[in-house]
């Protein structure tokens, strides 16, 4: 039973490292990249003045009353 802690710790350290790298890769390719593509697609056709005019007409702003 000599060096049992050292052997088990080495195994657990390598296991924890690979699990964390796997989780990071899954998050990057499963969440972050699709989110970046969705934002890019949204802002490709986004017109801020049109959005501002719609909010202004709805009465959202106090400093810019509806026309």
Automatic annotation (TrEMBL):
PROSITE patterns in the record: PROKAR_LIPOPROTEIN
Cellular component terms (Gene Ontology): mitochondrial inner membrane; respiratory chain complex IV
Major subcellular site: mitochondrion
Pfam families for this protein: COX6C
Entry keyword annotation includes Membrane: yes
Keywords on record: Membrane, Mitochondrion, Mitochondrion inner membrane, Transmembrane, Transmembrane helix
Top-level lineage group: Eukaryota
Membrane-topology descriptor: Single-pass membrane protein
Annotated pathway: Energy metabolism; oxidative phosphorylation
GO terms, biological process: mitochondrial electron transport, cytochrome c to oxygen
PANTHER family linked: CYTOCHROME C OXIDASE SUBUNIT 6C
Binding partners and assembly: Component of the cytochrome c oxidase (complex IV, CIV), a multisubunit enzyme composed of 14 subunits. The complex is composed of a catalytic core of 3 subunits MT-CO1, MT-CO2 and MT-CO3, encoded in the mitochondrial DNA, and 11 supernumerary subunits COX4I, COX5A, COX5B, COX6A, COX6B, COX6C, COX7A, COX7B, COX7C, COX8 and NDUFA4, which are encoded in the nuclear genome.
Reported function: Component of the cytochrome c oxidase, the last enzyme in the mitochondrial electron transport chain which drives oxidative phosphorylation. The respiratory chain contains 3 multisubunit complexes succinate dehydrogenase (complex II, CII), ubiquinol-cytochrome c oxidoreductase (cytochrome b-c1 complex, complex III, CIII) and cytochrome c oxidase (complex IV, CIV), that cooperate to transfer electrons derived from NADH and succinate to molecular oxygen, creating an electrochemical gradient over the inner membrane that drives transmembrane transport and the ATP synthase.
Protein name: Cytochrome c oxidase subunit 6C
Organism in which the protein naturally occurs: Penelope pileata
Taxonomic classification: Eukaryota, Metazoa, Chordata, Craniata, Vertebrata
Gene name tied to this protein: Cox6c
